[in-house]
# Entry
Amino acid sequence: MAIYLCHQEPGLLVHDAEVVASRPGAVALSRSAFHPGGGGQVSDRGHITWSDASDASGGEADVTGIEIDGDTWWHLLDRDVEPSGTVPSGVVEVRVDGDHRHRVASLHTMSHVLNAFVFDEFAGALVTGAQINGDGTGRMDFDLPEVDNERVRALEAPVNDVIARGLAVRSVYVDAGDAEAVAGLVRSMSVAPPPTPDGLLRIIDIDGLDRQACGGTHLSNTAESPLIRITKVENKGRHNRRVRFVFAE
Ligand SMILES: [Zn+2]
# Structure
């Protein structure tokens, strides 16, 4: 995967960009701080505003998601701005919804923490799936064939303890070939990102707790997350345990 602008500048939520292509209900931009989603994480959402050079009027639309088509990121809009009405063109102001970003990044970061405890507690059990939603709910699936579900639920306390401890979260890039040799680094069987074109893998490091390959959005410190509640642990097939979690507050 490419190194996204939102990975290089996680704090960048408002910027200008040129419209490089448009179609009914979508625009492609010269640059974008949006995270396009992937690996079970929903995309960022936000807003764009533009002016129309032909009549000095402007327009605006919510960005509801990103659709990737080759190298083009289509920013999906909540209204058909073509062919009737004004067409976004020239320079637009791009605004990423910071509350949505924070909710998703919080749940996503805490999914790493949960993953770390499951990995330790259950002899290297791997993730088989994940879904991080924008409404403050998420789930992770683990390959845990013979485990008491209450033992999984009990991990809520150590996860919340990590929030209280305020551990730093950093992203680093390592050689993908080296990374594969480190047990546990590529933790997930289904949501690990592919390397960058020059062979680097993005690693999320939670200080002293966990390192794993991931292309999503994360907090910079675990203390930024609301507390988490594990609402349910379900059996999904012979091997899978599905862990559902929400913000506790
Ligand atoms: Zn992640």
Remarks:
- The helical segments are 5-8, 98-121, 149-153, 156-165, 176-180.
- The mean pLDDT is 89.
